[in-house]
Amino acid sequence: xxxxxxxxxxxxxxxxxxxxxxxxxxxxxxxxxxxxxxxxxxxxxxxxxxxxxxxxxxxxxxxxxxxxxxxxxxxxxxxxxxxxxxxxxxxxxxxxxxxxxxxxxxxxxxxxxxxxxxxxxxxxxxxxxxxxxxxxxxxxxxxxxxxxxxxxxxxxxxxxxxxxxxxxxxxxxxxxxxxxxxxxxxxxxxxxxxxxxxxxxxxxxxxxxxxxxxxxxxxxxxxxxxxxxxxxxxxxxxxxxxxxxxxxxxxxxxxxxxxxxxxxxxxxxxxxxxxxxxxxxxxxxxxxxxxxxxxxxxxxxxxxxxxxxxxxxxxxxxxxxxxxxxxxxxxxxxxxxxxxxxxxxxxxxxxxxxxxxxxxxxxxxxxxxxxxxxxxxxxxxxxxxxxxxxxxxxxxxxxxxxxxxxxxxxxxxxxxxxxxxxxxxxxxxxxxxxxxxxxxxxx
Length: 443
Fold this sequence. Notes:
Layout: H1 2-6, H2 8-13, H3 19-39, E1 68-69, H4 72-78, E2 87-91, E3 94-100, E4 106-112, H5 117-132, E5 141-145, E6 152-156, H6 163-168, H7 178-198, E7 203-204, E8 213-216, E9 220-223, E10 230-231, E11 240-241, H8 253-258, E12 260-261, H9 263-279, H10 295-303, H11 323-336, H12 347-359, H13 367-374, H14 377-386, H15 414-442
Main location: membrane
Membrane topology: Lipid-anchor
Keywords: ATP-binding, Cell membrane, Kinase, Lipoprotein, Membrane, Nucleotide-binding, Serine/threonine-protein kinase, Transferase
């Protein structure tokens, strides 16, 4: 697999017109990766934690390639000849249909646009990636079809659609409540953590956005669409150079400008998604007023004043959110959206913070209790004037600028460590704003 993405020209020149050639390429690339990963020594953080992730499989072990092969005739029958009423979505590379296999399994079938070699390469990359990567927060690839010039991917069916549907197409749906939003954020972050820290070598997702986060029963999130995924840098390399791809509004600034892709590029994209969850605003929305088209550009000045945080909340929540939880979630988003990639946290630290936030179940019925404990927006203003409620930096809780956040080095409960992560993030936000203001005055 290391050879797979580093030698794209070899893949392009290989025959993609026969089902057997696809399968051979998959197994061959997996074997290359297995020998590569066995010969190189990677950092401890890139090893699998079998106790925490029972379903994690070593990337490159060809024995775990379990994707089925389907004929075009089988998939046509599953979708009633790709009837319009079976179409459940349409992306940049083709339409997605709901289908029923002969076994009775309900699946989602993506039929790639047959025009252009681009789709062929991404088809192969996705088959390889999802055949070798397995996690509860990644969509499961059931199989694929490479009949003649037909390219189709068969996934497990996600009954609740995409996160994008539930944030912006709510005419016939209940708006997502605060607890569900934090649950989705934490689950999506865990999927990204698997790609960055558990896959070996690490994988850069490169296309994280709300439409690519699919929802299973109980709003369990799964990352989907891996056609743009790339193997991350290993050894002493700091980045992967590639042409800029992805979705406008989600791309990290350094990647958009230079084509230099890192794991922190994904962290930025995650920050945009988290901000969408909190605000209910699209990453790019040209229907809004001037100055509010770009979500991140709109949010940056608001991050500097916590008294304005309530203005950022999705109106569909109707005030039903924990004040302190909002401050902490926005602190996480702001850290992920730092313009300097080295200032952004590692995804593992984001998972720790969001797992804690998602565990703090908010009860709308106890809203008055939360208001008294954490302070209403009005009380918050009073406290800010008195200087008692500011996000201050203290002692060993300082955030470093070299690698984002660092886990506290002490023996404590996971919950206490998560709280410390959040305190560090809040401190880092304040310090970042102070530095910006100071540089502005000096200028």
